[in-house]
Design goal:
The protein is α/β, with parallel strands linked by helices and about 850 residues long. It contains 30 helices and 31 strands. The chain has an 8-stranded mixed β-barrel, surrounded by 4 helices. It has a 5-stranded antiparallel β-sheet with strand order 2-1-5-4-3, with helices on both faces. The protein is flat, with a radius of gyration of 46 Å.
Length: about 850
């Protein structure tokens, strides 16, 4: 660019610094809205307009004594001549630069520079534009897109970009990089229970701890809540040993107890490791592989570290496929219900069914509940699914009721997420009203783990559900860590003993003792017990012997679709009488001895007494006979191969405590027998050879003891059942009284408001009960009858006012013009109805204004 200079114009002013310019040209440059500077070949500012001075904060006079190196410190004086030459050769350029203000702040500028000779001297003309705001906006946008706001760590997107770059370098340099996926599950619970402020503080502490484990160019990223990732990128190769060492360091720093705001916090973590390129062909896959390994670590237990394996990837892929299909399973009608009967062990009748959710996918086939319900819980799909289960099950039970089938209870499982919904009770009540199912025919099942999470809120929710009249069952009891003192205060009707605690005749004595203890504890809390997963006659016999109330399992029926369940209900299928022990039967005696001649002799001796005699030649065979027969009295030899008589009877006491047990032996091993007698395992010890009559007398006495104990147990069961029913009636009565009290309070408040309203109506109002007695007069009516409050309690026919008597007799609800005590009124008398019965009438007398 060449600006000609007119040497002939003597009146032309000079620009500061000696450059002459026309007045108009100087005026325009000085007042241009964008900064303009002229710089010579030595970097000196020969001209700066007012916009430049305003932008940089220097006076123009001072600026024109400075150099470009003063306002652009990054510029090198020895390189300036090269810059001028480049502009001269290439022409105008647009570039970015940072200039410094008088306050030392750096401004991001966009510069348009060109070579310009002025008065035969080389100069650079620069037009500047401040783009600092745009630059800050871009930086903020980049930060929001790539940086976790809380921790300041890279987020998933930025980490993936870094993985791509490091993976490319690793391939070029023939080395490996590692990626650790880390999850701390307690973060979400801490946020919800202790507050997000403490949770954020905890995250910052954990970030500092994990950052101390970084090495080389490794990168720590945060994906949200308790999910982190650590990229191991360093000059040397990252193999399994290196990654495992870092993983252990991470685990150690995360699981070290810490204290925040007087709270002791102990965390757990799951860590998955993937190595590139051995575990992933593409850089974009390595993060997913590490997360697959992390889920494998979660499945293995607490604080585990797992490496990626193809098998784990296959499982993760299958889970992703299930999750994708589950999103549409409900709307496509792929979910359905099966119903498993629940049996009363006293009557043998079906008293309820449990609704069990199933999924049949056209692509995946039949998906087991333990494979899709956890997915539904994690994704939040469990809420619409469980609402569908509630609605469908209640409609089915109401439909069976309308068909005239026996009224049985429908049991439905709640999910943990559903139990946390504040409006759960009202939702269930709405579904009951819509389906027409009485609340007493619905049972809600919860697990121990659900009760222990936010116990106060759960207790309130269960109390609200129970007040509707719905029973509540505690499912899977015995598999968790329930606080029994808290459990006593929860509105639980039935405790369901987990399948793992339903013993068979071959079970160890301690297992039977645990089950018996649970049943006794539940009965002491006035709660029924249901055994789940009963599959054999031996299991049923033991449950009955220990006074279990209800059962559910394949021994009676597997879960059935509705069309297969209905015939069972219609036909009244039940447990056979012999399974319940209700049939009349003989006194049953079990003889156990390894010597056949002894057994034969005893059978001949005792057959005359009319006993049903069962025999066995060993302790093991004796246990089998006990499973096959309902035995009252046992007579066992002491010395037998495999299992002594005392050992056999000790185990029998645990499995069948109601039996009466005797030892008949020629060997007097005094200590073991004495111990067994003291423990209650042996009722009496008889010696060989025996006296026939004494043996017969002892066995007869044993049967009498057994029958007396059976009668006592029967009476005890009846008393306990009566207590259970009474406790249930008391609970329902308390709920009813609370509801009625609340309704009475509301009605009293409404009555008070209505009375005040009637009292303040500006015209006479008279209330008459269904018998015709005057029961209410407002103040205007009192004035109309000259304060004759004595009218209250009189029959309307006895009041000396014929117009009112006629109104009472008509009660047509129409307006009539009448005259009372010389004044004209437009009166109406309307009958008051309540519960389809008359509650009397209300008269209103509206004065007619004089014309």
């Amino acid at each position: 660019m060449h600006v000609p200079f007119d040497h002939e114009r003597s009146n032309a002013p000079l620009l500061k610094g000696g450059l002459a310019a026309p007045n108009l040209q100087e005026f325009v440059l000085d007042r241009a809205p964008w900064p303009i500077v002229v710089i010579d070949t030595h970097g000196r500012l020969r001209y700066a307009n007012e916009a430049t001075a305003a932008m940089l904060g220097w006076p123009r006079e001072q600026l024109e004594t400075m150099s470009i190196f003063d306002i652009a410190p990054h510029r090198r004086p020895d390189m300036w001549a090269d810059s001028v030459h480049m502009l001269k050769q290439r022409g105008p350029l647009t570039l970015s630069s940072d200039w410094q203000t008088s306050k030392g702040e750096l401004l991001s500028l966009e510069l348009h520079a060109c070579f310009m000779p002025i008065a035969d001297m080389d100069h650079i003309l620069v037009f500047a534009r401040d783009v600092s705001a745009q630059q800050r906006a871009l930086e903020q946008a980049f930060r929001l897109a790539h940086i976790d706001e809380l921790t300041g760590l890279p987020n998933r997107k930025m980490l993936q970009d870094r993985i791509d770059k490091e993976a490319l370098l690793a391939i070029q340099e023939n080395r490996r990089i590692g990626l650790l996926a880390v999850e701390i599950k307690e973060i979400r619970h801490i946020n919800e229970s202790l507050g997000y402020a403490l949770g954020d503080q905890l995250l910052m502490t954990l970030t500092r701890r994990m950052s101390s484990c970084l090495r080389g160019s490794s990168v720590l990223a945060h994906f949200g809540e308790g999910e982190f990732a650590l990229l191991l990128a360093q000059d040397s190769d990252v193999d399994d040993d290196v990654a495992l060492q870092v993983g252990r360091q991470i685990r150690d720093v995360l699981t070290t107890p810490l204290r925040l705001e007087h709270q002791n916090i102990q965390l757990t973590c799951d860590i998955g490791i993937a190595i590139f390129p051995q575990d992933a062909r593409e850089p974009g896959h390595v993060l997913r592989q590490a997360q697959v390994a992390m889920r494998l670590a979660t499945a293995q237990g607490i604080n585990q570290i797992s490496f990626y394996t193809p098998e784990a990837n296959a499982r993760a892929s299958a889970q992703q496929a299930r999750e994708a299909a589950l999103h549409h399973a409900l709307e496509r009608g792929e979910l359905f219900l099966l119903y498993q009967p629940q049996i009363d062990l006293k009557t043998g009748q079906i008293v309820g069914v449990e609704a069990l959710l199933r999924w049949r996918s056209p692509v995946l086939g039949d998906v087991p509940p333990d494979a899709f319900i956890p997915i539904a819980e994690c994704t939040g799909l469990i809420l619409p699914i469980n609402n569908w289960v509630l609605k469908s099950a209640c409609e089915a039970a109401a439909r069976w009721r309308q068909m005239g089938l026996p009224a049985i209870q429908m049991a439905i499982n709640l999910s943990p997420r559903q139990l946390r919904q504040p409006d759960l009770a009202s939702t269930i009540q709405t579904i009951l009203m819509q389906s027409g199912l009485p609340p007493q025919q619905l049972s809600i099942e919860v697990t121990e783990g659900m009760l222990m999470d936010n116990l106060e809120q759960v207790s309130k929710t269960l109390a609200d559900i129970r007040s509707i009249g719905i029973d509540i069952s505690l499912d899977g009891f015995g598999t968790g860590c329930s606080n029994l003192s808290s459990l006593r205060n929860l509105p639980i009707n039935v405790i369901k003993v987990d399948r793992s605690l339903v013993p068979d005749v071959t079970a160890a004595a301690r297992d039977v003792s645990i089950t018996r203890a649970i049943i006794n504890m539940a009965h002491s809390m006035q709660t029924k017990v249901m055994a789940v997963g009963v599959e054999s006659e031996g299991e049923l016999a033991l449950l009955q012997a220990n006074r279990c109330d209800l059962m559910q399992g394949n021994f009676f029926s597997k879960p059935l679709p509705e069309e297969e369940l209905l015939p069972l209900l219609r036909d009244g299928k039940h447990l056979p009488s012999e399974a319940l022990g209700h049939q009349a039967r003989q006194r049953t005696l079990l003889l156990v001895d390894d010597e056949d001649n002894i057994v034969s002799a005893l059978k001949r001796l005792l057959r005359r007494d009319g006993y049903n005699i069962v025999t066995a030649n060993s302790g093991a065979q004796g246990l089998q006979r006990l499973a096959e027969h309902q035995v009252d009295v046992i007579v066992s030899d002491q010395r037998m191969p495999g299992m002594t008589g005392v050992e056999f009877l000790r185990q029998t006491k645990e499995l069948y405590p109601q039996t009466i047990r005797l030892v008949l032996s020629g060997y007097t091993e005094l200590q073991s027998i004495t111990d067994a007698i003291n423990e209650g395992a042996i009722y009496k010890f008889l010696t060989k050879p025996w006296d026939d009559e004494r043996v017969r007398a002892h066995i007869k006495e044993a049967f009498e003891q057994k029958e007396m104990a059976d009668e006592n147990r029967r009476l005890d069961r009846e008393v306990q059942q009566a207590n259970l029913e009474l406790a249930d009636v008391n609970r329902r009565l308390k709920a009813l009284l609370a509801t009625q009290s609340e309704r009475i309070l509301k009605e009293e408040a409404s009555l008070e408001i209505a009375r005040d309203a009637l009292e303040n109506i500006p015209c006479p109002v008279v209330g008459i009960d269904q018998e015709g007695m005057v029961s209410f007069m407002n103040s205007d009516a009192d004035l109309l009858f000259d304060g004759a409050a004595v009218l209250l309690g009189m029959h309307i026919d006895d009041v000396s006012c014929p117009p009112l008597t006629r109104l009472w007799q008509t009660q047509d609800g129409c307006h009539h013009d009448i005259e009372v005590h010389g004044r004209a009124y437009r009166a109406v008398c309307r009958a008051m109805k309540g519960d389809a019965h008359s509650r009397g009438a209300l008269m209103v007398l509206m004065p007619i204004a004089d014309c």
